[in-house]
Q: What sequence folds into this?
């Protein structure tokens, strides 16, 4: 097998337009907030203490993880 990076050329995927990424991120965040609010409330009731992360932070982390997965492929 030959080394494709021997001459300094490393192929990469084309970048997704920034506006499209932000739109998808916003849509996923809007969907994730109510879901995480329900999960956070359920966890609070079941364990009788507040979880470490609030619902908005949990939704933000979900959107941060899911959005790039859409554009890989």
A:
């Amino acid at each position: 097998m030959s080394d494709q990076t021997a001459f300094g050329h490393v192929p990469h995927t084309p970048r997704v337009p920034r506006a499209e990424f932000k739109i998808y991120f916003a849509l996923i965040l809007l969907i994730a907030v109510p879901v995480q609010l329900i999960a956070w409330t359920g966890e609070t009731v079941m364990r009788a203490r507040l979880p470490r992360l609030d619902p908005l932070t949990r939704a933000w982390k979900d959107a941060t993880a899911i959005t790039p997965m859409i554009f890989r492929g």
About this structure: The helical segments are 18-47, 55-71. The mean pLDDT is 88.
